[in-house]
Write a structure and sequence with these properties.
By secondary structure, this protein is α/β, with parallel strands linked by helices. The chain is built from 14 helices and 15 strands. Strands 1-3-2-6-8-7-14-15-11-9-10 form an 11-stranded mixed β-sheet, with helices on both faces. A two-stranded antiparallel sheet has the order 4-5. A two-stranded antiparallel sheet has the order 12-13.
């Protein structure tokens, strides 16, 4: 049996565990596909080929000896280059971090993926210091959309979206502060999970905004997304936000009925500044789920503004020393936003944090009568690389500032979201399935049901 690009992680793991496919063959197939297509996609910044081969051979040896292997045995995966990878400098999309000493230990989530049998094949391109929605990195070049390589992959986890959307790997890991998992998922036509804040460990990953940062997986199927999520769960004393929850497996529950779940459409802010394709995508998902109720989320626009305040001020605080010593080594767009953040008055930050508490309470009240909210993941399909503005109803809007218009009010209070791809023509676009805190299982069950109905799916890459 040979490993084909369209094989999902679950198929690979089952074939490896069953002896129909070797872990080494699955790894070599991924490395060959990276070599063939990454010159176009520019998803990877580092390929860890020898490490991957050594891990795959160890898995094959375990199988030959009759030892039990994990649920992701032989599955190739890659990580955004803000994850620590032993032997590599954790560049976080920057020029400055390349001068760091190589990491001595993998990030917690890499360790957990490999403990489950997954095989790390490399580190992925990203927006500088994760302050990006486009996937365009001035140091490493842009990661490209696998459905049209003249278009953005989305950011800041652009390489993760591009690599999975282009079928270079079946699973990738990324981060999401204001939308950086959900935006690439939408543009690249794949599934992405932003878990509840504090659900998955961020230990040994380079931070952006500690009070907003999440790590999570991308995949081409809901089953693969759930498998990766399950093996990465668990408390971690090295991440102070990830200490309160145990492991709550969702994979065994995916096929449970979603009948009786109360599904509503997010209104107000989430129905403004959207292109027809975003409206169509939400409409298709809502119709399939029988959702007609529209719920207005109060002050969502203000939540987005407050998220900007907290993002830029916390980000600036993290980078002050770099801004002083090496300002010319930043992407100017990132540098200028961080400098602006350093000048935001403390009183405004305090107001943003107080509003955050109020807004969290408002959403908690909504989730007393609703189980799931539906909203666009992005206002449009992937813009052209280098595109500065888009025209919506005769109004010119800046692309970079508005790509995350519908994701920021959600991550602002750490809600779990599954981004699902609606395969429109000529380009896919994502819908957010949003739930109350710690209810990832519900969001994944709804996504799985939609996938089984054929409403959402990861299309084959069209640009390769």
């Amino acid at each position: 049996m040979t490993a084909k690009p369209e094989m999902n992680a679950a198929d690979i793991a089952n074939a490896v565990a069953g002896g129909q496919l070797s872990a080494l063959a699955a790894t070599e197939a991924a490395l060959a596909r990276i070599k063939q297509h990454d010159g176009i996609l520019n998803s990877f910044t580092d390929v860890t080929a020898e490490r991957a081969r050594a891990k795959a051979r160890a898995i094959d040896a375990d199988i030959a000896a009759g030892r039990k292997v994990g649920p992701l045995a032989g599955v190739p995966f890659a990580v955004k280059n803000l994850f620590d990878v032993a032997g590599l400098a954790t560049r976080a999309g920057s020029k400055i971090n390349r001068d760091l000493a190589p990491a001595k230990r993998d990030a917690t989530l890499i360790e957990r993926m490999e403990a489950a049998g997954a095989v790390l094949v490399g580190a992925l391109n990203m927006g500088e210091y994760a302050y990006d929605f486009t996937g365009e990195n001035i140091h490493d070049g842009p990661s490209r959309n696998p459905h049209d390589t003249t278009r953005m992959s989305g950011g800041s986890s652009g390489g993760s979206g591009s690599a999975v959307g282009g079928a270079l790997v079946p699973i990738a890991l990324g981060s999401d502060t204001n939308g950086s998992i959900r935006v690439p998922s939408s543009f690249c036509g794949i599934f992405g999970l932003k878990p509840t804040y504090g659900r998955l460990s961020r230990a040994r990953s380079f931070p952006f905004v500690a009070s907003l940062d999440h790590l999570g997986p991308f995949a081409r199927s809901v089953t693969d997304l759930a498998l990766a999520y399950d093996v990465m769960q668990g408390p971690d004393a090295e991440d102070g936000a990830c200490t309160t929850r145990g492991v709550e497996p969702v994979t065994p529950l995916l096929a449970e009925s979603i009948s009786g779940l109360r599904v509503a459409i997010a209104g107000g802010h989430f129905q403004k500044n959207v292109f027809p394709e975003a409206v169509e995508a939400v409409s298709r998902v809502a119709k399939a789920l029988g959702a007609t109720q529209v719920v207005d989320i109060p002050e969502a626009s203000r939540a987005r503004a407050a998220a900007y305040v907290i993002t830029t001020t916390e980000g600036a605080s993290l980078h002050l020393d770099r801004l002083r010593k090496r300002p010319n080594d930043f992407d100017p767009a990132v540098r200028d936003r961080l400098i602006a953040g350093a000048m935001v008055p403390a009183t405004l930050v305090d107001r943003a944090q107080k509003f955050r508490r109020w807004y969290r309470a408002q959403l908690a009240e909504i989730f007393r009568s609703v189980d799931v909210l539906l909203a666009p993941a992005t206002p449009c399909t992937a813009p052209k690389l280098g595109q500065v503005n888009f025209n919506l109803d005769g109004v010119e809007l800046p692309v970079r500032a508005n790509i995350g218009i519908h994701t920021q009010p959600i991550s602002f209070i750490g809600l779990p979201v599954v981004a699902v791809p609606v395969p429109l023509e000529p380009l896919p676009i994502g819908v957010q399935i949003i739930c109350a805190p710690w209810r990832e299982g519900i969001a994944l069950r709804v996504a799985h049901a939609l996938e089984k109905m054929g409403v959402v799916a990861a299309p084959a890459p069209r640009g390769l």
